[in-house]
Amino acid sequence: MTIREELNPRGNFQPSKMGAIAETESTSTLRKEVERSMDQYFAHLGEASVTNLYDLVLNEVEGPLLEAVLKHTGSNQSKASIMLGLNRGTLRKKLKQHGML
Q1: Mapped to the 3 state alphabet, what secondary structure does the chain carry?
Q2: Whose CA is closest to 69, among 89, 91, 36, 50?
Q3: Average pLDDT over residues 19-42
Q4: Mean local confidence (pLDDT), 8-25
């Protein structure tokens, strides 16, 4: 199910009151989902050593984020760059890095 999301004052994504179908008692936020995913990652990691976790997470998140924003904007790169707060050239560079151009 997809519902419209917006940033709340704390910078977390949460369902918008406009168009939200039925909010549950525990509203899922982007922050909570990242925390849940990282907990799962560490639980499966066990004793294994990991390096460059920051880069790993950014690479895993950036591609789907770009895809979602492009889908939302109808593949309009100018609108997507504004929505993301990126220069259009930077957006194109990132799209190339992720094999999306």
Answers
A1: CCCCEEECCCCCEEECCCCCCCCCCCCCCHHHHHHHHHHHHHHHHCCCCCCCHHHHHHHHHHHHHHHHHHHHCCCCHHHHHHHHCCCHHHHHHHHHHCCCC
A2: 91
A3: 76
A4: 49
Residue type, 45: L
Residue indicated by tokens 């199910």: 1
Q: How large is the average pLDDT for residues 18-47?
A: 77
Q: How far apart are CA 88 and CA 82, in angstroms?
A: 8
Residue in this structure with the two tokens 């918008």, named with its chain if needed:
16
Residues β-bridged to residue 5:
15
Separation CA 97–CA 73 (nearest Å): 20
**Which structural domains are found in the chain, ordered by start?**
1-49 (no CATH), 51-101 (1.10.10.60)
Q: Which residues contact 28 (CB under 8 A, 6 or more apart)?
A: 14
Length in residues, the chain:
101
Which residue, chain included where needed, has tokens 């008692």? 25
